[in-house]
Amino acid sequence: MSTGARLTARWRGSATHRVYSVVVFVVLASIDNVAAVLVPPLYSPIARDLGVREGAVGLVTAASFLVAAVAAVAWAYAGDRTRRKPMLMIGTLVWAAGTSGTALAGSYLAFFAAQMVAAIGLGAVASVGFSVVSDLIAPKRRGLVMSFWGLSQGVGTLVGTLLAGVLGAADWRRPFLVLAIVGLVATLAYFLTYDVRRGQSEPELARIFAEGGDYDHRISRADLPGILSRRTNVWLVMQGFTAQFVFGSLVWLPRLFQAKAEAQGHPEEIAIVIGSLFATLFQLGGVFSIAGGLIGDRLQRRTPRGRALVAAVGILAGVPFYVVLFFVPLRVSVPDDAGTGAVALAVVSSIVTEPTITVSFVLAMLALALTSANSPNWYALLADVNPPEHRGTVYSAGNLVNGVGRALGNGLVGVSFRALQGAFPPPMNFALGLAAFQVFFLPTGVMYWLASRTSPRDIDDVRQTLRARVAAETGPGSRPGSGSGSGSGSGPESGSDAESRSDAETAAEKKSAPRHGTERDVRD
């Protein structure tokens, strides 16, 4: 064996390779949100250049949310049945092509079409990537790692807003060209990641992999009724509809700050930069999602209701801080002929020198810190209550409902701004509209509380299902080391559909297996 071959063999599947893979998936997941928020800070220059109203450009954003969510269901279902790495690479190339097409669009229709192509590709990134990351991380650390996964979404929002404001203030097409290049680099990064085996992180399946086998159970249509009957899935999916009404409205936050800057007398180009920078700085509170993930992990070890309770408290406690934030005055002194660097310096220094900006910054930190506890615990709990072959599909179903809610929230808040504008000129119409949409966080918190009541039983059921499968496939009479379809000998995800088995086919196994699960099993 050559030196290069030996190094490759040592690298493949090593701890370093797995860490690299997690980092790649976490970092590149942020691209989803970069693309999602790249357009809103540039509504006014895009609308002017394409000869349409800002509301028409906002419609493109709303439609892209929905298209990405629908596409994610197809990507995820296919990913739960076959190899996932090629699908991620294809999806990345598709959204890169759509993003480059956006930069070259010469008409509103071309702009709309390019954004829809990008949305189709983006559907693969989060849904298939989530399935892979959940197989790379053991259950007891899911909250922490998923906090980085969720944080990457916030970082994507931050980077996208900053990219749009700084690079797009003078030429709105430039940020899209940069993002398209990032997509090509992302494809290469995916190519070098570890092709993890499905279910490899589950303690209940360790025996199969130790004997050289594979977990070849794949989702089928017969599993869908069981997925829908799992009550925690219902609450986790449905809470996203109301939550995303709020999060969809918050993509207008740069526009609120832009309007405050314009009301202060700054020209549009300067106001766009100010609005984007303030929105970026105020989103730094999302870094506290790490704390939310750690708290969720720790509380989950004490009670199987832990993750859902952390998310419920965080969502509800963040509402008053958001509402106050929208109405605090924005005052920043910037000369009208200042360059981007001078504007950035003035914005950052105003956090210390201007009391109203200081108050706004603190409120934003608290609001984001509390509501960001939702993200890692949602991801981790979704993985906990579903077997490995269902996770991508259930995630994408949640993402679809999120997309519908986010599209409606993004679109309807725009309607509310126009309806309020007659009586309340900008920026008051933006502040009132955003504050009113906070009410949708209330049912979100309630549904998380309901999920906390059903999740202990669902977690235990999944663990018993996995134990039953291992007992059936490695017990007396089974071929040693065969695992669940390892006889195919063609890699970690190669079992044919005929060889793959669904939940419906293993229900009898679960019923006949000894029930070892106790509350202590769930906590560990």
UniProtKB/TrEMBL annotation:
Keyword Transmembrane helix: yes
Keywords of this entry: Cell membrane, Membrane, Transmembrane, Transmembrane helix
Transmembrane stretches, start-end: 20-43, 55-78, 90-111, 117-138, 150-170, 176-194, 234-253, 273-296, 308-330, 430-451
InterPro entries: MFS, MFS_dom, MFS_Efflux_Transporters, MFS_trans_sf
GO cellular component: plasma membrane
Membrane association type: Multi-pass membrane protein
Database matches in Pfam families: MFS_1
GO MF annotation, one: transmembrane transporter activity
Domain Major facilitator superfamily (MFS) profile: 18-455
Tagged with keyword Manganese: no
Chain intervals for the UniProt region annotation (Disordered): 471-524
Compositional bias of kind Gly residues: 478-492
Compartment list: Cell membrane
Residue ranges with Basic and acidic residues bias: 498-524
Principal cellular location given in the protein's record: membrane
Classification via PANTHER family: CHLORAMPHENICOL EFFLUX PUMP RV0191, PURINE EFFLUX PUMP PBUE
The protein, known as: MFS family permease
